[in-house]
Amino acid sequence: MIDWLLRDKDQPLQLDLGGRLLPLALRRTPTARRMTMRLAPDGSEVRITLPRWGRSAEALQFARSKADWLIAQLDAMPQTAALGHGASLAYLGEPLTLRHDPAAARRVTLGEGELRVGGAAESLTPRLTRWMQGEARRLLAQDLSCYCLRADVPVPRLMLSSAQRRWGSCARDGTIRLNWRLVMAPPPVRRSVVAHEVTHLVHFDHSPRFHALLERIYEGDIRAANRWLKREGRGLYVPLG
């Protein structure tokens, strides 16, 4: 049974989907021509974008009509990855098999199709997470330098992000934030996000000039990369541990 729970005006709208209570976030934008809905990458909320003139009641009815889809999406959410010997972890779009030997050195070592690591099993998750973040910083920094050279702009400050809502962002001061989980995606997908944010250093909008520059500096198929993120991106948020 699907129940809509409307709280008082100072509390957020929430939706009970088969016993799972999720916030319902409504976002009105002047560019929206119709209502669209998606589940947050981590399954934490249902998001509906609607035109400025859109009514909340219509958004509720729209979401209600998609309740079965929402439940299916929640059921398909990636489960916590149990990191132990023989587990699989995505890196550069390919699965790596974890080889854990408690008697071996604690350092994480990348091999052919595998990650080798020693030390106590209890500390595997934080150590592997730090290794992945280190790899992300190294690769994203290389990508950033590459695209800044192509766009003829200085290399800005790079910060890693753990954001649940976006893969990258470019601040007004030029700081670029990139989601470390992009290290799990295929390189062309990761690089497409970097190229997108570098383009914002020149055009802080999504105008035709922005898209023209992005097409010039990015060597791949930007539309294919966007489709991959839309289709597979949620899987990169699998909790580790």
Explain what you see:
It is built from 6 helices and 12 strands. With 241 residues, it is of the alpha/beta class. The chain has 2 domains: 2-75, no CATH class; 128-237, Zincin-like (2-Layer Sandwich), CATH 3.30.2010. Helix 3 packs across helix 4, helix 4 (187-200) packs across helix 5 (208-217) and helix 4 crosses helix 6 (222-232). The longest helix has 28 residues, at 124-151. The two termini are 32 Å apart.
Topology:
Blueprint: E1 2-5, E2 14-17, E3 20-29, E4 36-39, E5 46-51, H1 56-65, H2 67-75, E6 88-91, E7 94-100, E8 109-111, E9 114-117, H3 124-151, E10 158-161, E11 168-170, E12 176-179, H4 187-200, H5 208-217, H6 222-232
Parallel strand pairs: 3-5, 7-9, 10-12
Antiparallel strand pairs: 1-2, 2-3, 4-5, 6-7, 8-9, 11-12
